[in-house]
Amino acid sequence: MRHLLSAAVVLLTVSLAGAASPPRTEPVAVREAAAAVVVPGKWPDPFRESERTLSGPPTRLRVPAAGIDTALERLHLGADGELVPPTGNDRAGWYADGTAPGDVGPAVLAGHVDSRRGPAVFFRLKELRPGDTVEVTRGDEQVRFTVTGSAWYPKSRFPAARVYGPTPDRQLRLITCGGSFDRGARSYRENLVVYAVAG
């Protein structure tokens, strides 16, 4: 089951519309009433996780609440413009031509939901709830994300701009197939997208 590139990324046979690269920002000027002292613009924010410079590709994904612990392989678009799915049902992959997990923007990870043999790596993705933790290994670093929500989208009306559009911070999309099964096309009619943010 594959989805057209214009519709978006999906697993098994779901396609990926390219992920966008978002902008970066940073301002600030705080004034003290009595002394009228201007605080430097690079003042640290204690409520925000400090940004780290990460290197190397993501190599592993762990999602304790869904029992997911898998190596990650690089995924690319094929000659037909569709995302080539992971080689096996027991591992997920990341769209290597888009944002890497931990960089600013929406990183995309995809995996199979099942096969003729039974459940696959993202079979329990639907169990995730806001607040659940997602961990991605990148180099010597563990990048932690927190689930903010999830949504089911018909493949025929996949909101590519919402899923793959620019973000001002580090975000993650976990995508798989699901919903009702079209036996004639041998494909699920919907995609499940789990949204998560770093921190």
Question: Structural class, judged by helices and strands?
Answer: mainly beta
The span between the termini is: 33 Å
The CATH superfamily turns out to be Sortase
SSE order, one letter for each helix or strand: EEEEEEEEHEE
Could you say which overall geometry the principal axes of the C-alpha atoms support? globular
Q: What would you report as the Rg, rounded to the nearest angstrom?
A: 19 Å
Q: In what range is the share of β-strand residues?
A: 35-45%
β-strand number: 10
Short summary of the structure?
The protein is 3% helix and 37% strand. With 199 residues, it is mainly beta.
Overall description:
The chain is mainly β and 199 residues long. It has one domain: Sortase (Sortase, Chain: A, Beta Barrel). The strands form two sheets. It has an eight-stranded mixed β-barrel with strand order 1-2-3-4-9-10-8-7. The longest helix has 5 residues. It is globular.
Topology:
Elements: E1 58-63, E2 68-75, E3 92-95, E4 105-110, E5 114-115, E6 118-119, E7 133-138, E8 141-154, H1 160-164, E9 170-182, E10 187-198
Parallel strand pairs: 2-3, 4-9
Antiparallel strand pairs: 1-2, 1-7, 3-4, 5-6, 7-8, 8-10, 9-10
Keywords:
two-stranded antiparallel sheet; disordered N terminus; mainly beta; 199 residues; Sortase, Chain: A; globular; 10 strands; 1 helix
